[in-house]
Specification:
Two copies of one chain form a homodimer.
Chain A: E1 2-7, E2 16-21, E3 30-39, H1 42-49, E4 61-62, E5 66-74, E6 86-89, E7 104-108, E8 112-114, H2 121-124, H3 128-141, E9 149-152, H4 158-169, E10 173-178, H5 184-189, E11 194-197, H6 203-210, E12 216-221, H7 227-234, E13 235-243, H8 256-262, E14 265-268, H9 272-275, H10 278-294, E15 301-306, H11 310-319, E16 325-329
Parallel strand pairs in A: 9-10, 9-12, 10-11, 12-13, 13-14, 15-16
Antiparallel strand pairs in A: 1-2, 1-4, 3-5, 3-7, 3-16, 5-6, 6-8
């Protein structure tokens, strides 16, 4: 028997429970991991709340996108990996079909990859979501280049921090936003060139000041809601705004007049666009391996919880106190 | 003295009046046309109403983007054209600075071009707005290619008709929309492969039927408002929606969930992006000259009014009865 995290109804963190279940066998094209560490994502909080892009087909439901571990079984037709390989999962599958929170996890073989040997399992499960998400937006679609001004909102998140690192690696200027002043120094420490505290400062004015009136030419935002209008006002002519989340509970307007006057491109984006395309995914992996190897990309861990404290780990994520990835370790 | 159309306040068509003014002299980098024909655009209706992207600095204000005529004076430094050249104006200037409705018009030399000899002045003033607008959206930004499904809304307009011609020239499928059934046959006659009557038919369902469940991968829309959500539902994965107007009086939402799930790009666009960039403008001109020459692009004239009936001409445009460009002729 193995402990698997499941929820039997939508709700607060305490709907998560550790159920004792028989060890499952991987099917065709699947592998099974003996899990060592789990990386938490806001997507799982939303999935648990019934507020995510997709919902479970039935209850109880598993959840979880990212885990690192050792392969302990392979399904039919799997030749890419063998028992004993140290791998982590790439969050490009549907949580309706797979959930990796638990002592054991099954994943499609296409969504499993080795992580650099120098990384611990905690670090190995803290890379795919953040780097593929930020890479796809900034490099694959945003075509980031030296000299760009990149506006990164809600930058304290793991994906935000990955975006700062990718921006700096490209020789561009990272303008990070945070609502309150308390996280300003953390963002500067993470490499942001400028930090705008949106509760206290006028974002468009600050961005125009920083960019000498030009505006930000690449904007990476998980907030949406009415904040998109502020972002459009901070945008340069021809800028691309990439929306990759729906953190705001407000309706999101399309900033039509700014878009017409500036020729703005506003793009909805999730990592599935990269993870679901083998060619793009391979480029993303190589970019990430190179960046981790050169030290330009460095995963930041905030703190770890043992699996038994999964409810506390989710509550902690919802408290927005973290500065880096929240990890759950499995003994 | 020459007759120039001006308005002394915002309002209905009857604020337009023919004022007798002294013949103006072109300044540095400008040319003067003896006007033969004027092409009407919805932009001028909105400018007259005070509802356009920009507003006059003061009253009385001139207006008008498109005129064809014969150059009868050139300003300092103008070497590109000489007196006697037959040209038409490219609507890439600001109506705050120039307005071509009248017997005589001044325009910046960069926004003046010869039109093919086989075209009449009426046709020569019916090409730039529609073809550059549709070219920029579909070819320059939309990267239209054979096999694409292009959804063209409010397709009965001149720009919509130009988009149908450009879509067909690219070997793509043109799906045109119109609100009422009365214009369906006109759109089929103009070359649309499919026409969806949005007052009677469910647009996303029809588009999914036509595209065998794929959706439209390029959408060209001047309406905005809540219609953008219908368009997002008719869009294919990775589709580009180009918004080039604000005909709806409703607020425009950003279709966030569809955008995230499908990876939609929604782009604000005006012809100024092409007209304001000499390299892009040159490519657009060449595309248009080639298309007019080969017969793949054919400007469609609806009807002409004499200059004295400029008020009736504007009223006619606002009645939405036209099928093609409305022209004002100057004796």
């Amino acid at each position: 028997m193995v402990k698997i995290v499941r929820f039997h109804q939508f709700g607060d963190a305490d709907v998560l429970q550790l159920d004792e279940l028989p060890l499952a066998e991987p099917g065709k094209g699947e592998v099974r991991l003996k899990v060592e560490a789990i990386g938490l994502n806001r997507a799982e909080v939303m999935f648990r709340q019934g507020a995510y892009l997709e919902q479970p087909d039935s209850f109880p439901s598993t959840l979880g996108y990212e885990a690192a571990g050792v392969i302990d079984a392979v399904g039919e037709g799997v030749t890419e990996f063998k028992i004993g390989d140290r791998v982590s999962t790439i969050p490009g599958f549907s949580m309706k079909n797979y959930g990796v929170y638990g002592e054991s996890a099954i994943a499609p073989v296409t969504m499993v990859a080795k992580y650099p040997e120098k990384l611990s399992p905690q670090e190995g499960t803290a890379i795919w979501m953040q780097y593929i998400t930020a890479y796809g937006a900034l490099v694959e679609y945003g075509q980031i280049k030296s000299g760009d001004f990149v506006l990164i909102s809600a930058a304290i998140s793991s994906v935000g921090s990955a975006a700062i690192q990718i921006t700096k690696a490209a020789g561009a200027t990272a303008i990070a936003t945070t609502r309150g002043a308390s996280k300003k120094q953390m963002l500067l420490d993470k490499g942001a060139d400028y930090v705008v505290v949106t509760d206290e400062e006028d974002l468009p004015n600050k961005v125009m000041e920083i960019t000498q009136g030009q505006g930000a030419n690449l904007i990476f935002d998980p907030v949406a809601g009415s904040f998109i209008e502020t972002l459009a006002n901070a945008a340069a002519k021809g800028a691309t705004i990439i929306e990759y989340g729906a953190l705001s509970s407000e309706a999101t307007p399309f900033p039509l007049f700014a878009a017409l006057q500036k020729g703005l491109k506003i793009q909805g984006y999730t990592l599935f666009e990269i993870a679901g395309d083998p060619v793009k995914l391979e480029k993303a992996k190589q970019y990430m391996y190179d960046g981790l190897d050169s030290g330009k990309l460095v995963p930041i861990i905030d703190r770890s919880f043992p699996l038994e404290q999964i409810v506390d780990a989710h509550r902690y994520m919802e408290s927005n106190q973290q500065n880096g990835k929240i990890i759950v370790t499995v003994p």
